[in-house]
Amino acid sequence: MAQYVVQLRFDLAETDRRMDVRPAHRDYLTELKAAGKLVAAGPFADQTGALLVYDVADETELREILAKDPYTPANVYEIATLAEWQPLFPLS
């Protein structure tokens, strides 16, 4: 398993659409957390984006997870950063 950090940048012109989709997005994240695929997630205080940490087999699995996120077909974000992470002090 590998941990990946994903930083999303929200399309601020699509805030209303993102708010409409957010309940489904958060339900999806809850499922990922229960399955052990999501380590941590949350929006930035200024609501310009979010940071998510995943525990997955590889980048291919991560991209499959991102493709299934309700935010993806709604086209309300772009990926600012996607990188494998080697934490010195793990979150859990």
UniProtKB/TrEMBL annotation:
InterPro entries: Dimeric_a/b-barrel, Sec-metab_biosynth-assoc, YCII. Residues 4-85 form the YCII-related domain. Belongs to the YciI family. This is YCII-related domain-containing protein.
